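Title: Prediction job returns without error message
Component: structure pipeline
Severity: low
Priority: P3
Assignee: unassigned

Description:
Job completed but the reporter wants confirmation the result is attached to the right record. Sequence as submitted:
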Amino acid sequence: MIALLKPSHRFASFVVAPTNQLAVTAARAVAESPGRVYNPLYVYGAPGLGKTHLLMAVGHAVLEIDPSLTVEYLSLEEFSTAWPTAQDAGQGDAYSRHYGEADVLLLDDVHLLAYRRDLQLEILRVLDGILAQSHQVVIASDRGPNRIDGLDERLVRRFASGLVTDVAASSPETRFEIARRKALERGVTFQPDVLELLAGARLPDVRQLIAAVDRLEEAQSRAKQPLSVDGARELLQELGIEVSVGQDHDGRAGDAGGGGEPDEFGAFLS
């Protein structure tokens, strides 16, 4: 199972902000006491806000605390193709049993169950088996349980029977810290005004922010000198990213170094 958990997706590499604090707190509580609190834990929000990161962080933390536990990560994107294939080969029950016997099941992208009656019934069977044993389930989706179209009411009730919490878009201060830490992970230091430019750019989610950091890193590496804010603005505009001219985020650099937001977590990925 550990091979499926991305090494970078840990609690130690996640920025905590008011928009995700409840989800992070609940995820840590679940990792410390699987099956005893918030079961299931259901986290939802738009793509690119760290849901998969949180799921995998739970998995890593569980195994660090108790390596004897079995943790399984399952994306519904994978399940939607692998389970029917296993069914056709007469191995459907064995495939589902593999996940149903987990001490901790990390179930990602459950919104893909929409109108998939066959998959819904199988996931319901797996969930009922796990929850009956008081084993832990952590779920991620792009919407709340009652907003998944065509979802069996029994699944809606199972998903909502523990704690349902959301993660929302990050603030400019959080994006500044994400960009700074992602750059540091790569051994790169940007000028504060370049980070401020990134933090204020119109980017749809954190994935796109990290992609922009990568492009600026490449440009700075090629130039062999610190990237200027004008150079960064020009590159971002070439990438089709809208940035404000002369934007000013007073005090951001100071905040990122240990001000308003908790600094116990790093890069915010999904």
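Comment from assignee: result matches the submitted record. The chain has a mean pLDDT of 86.
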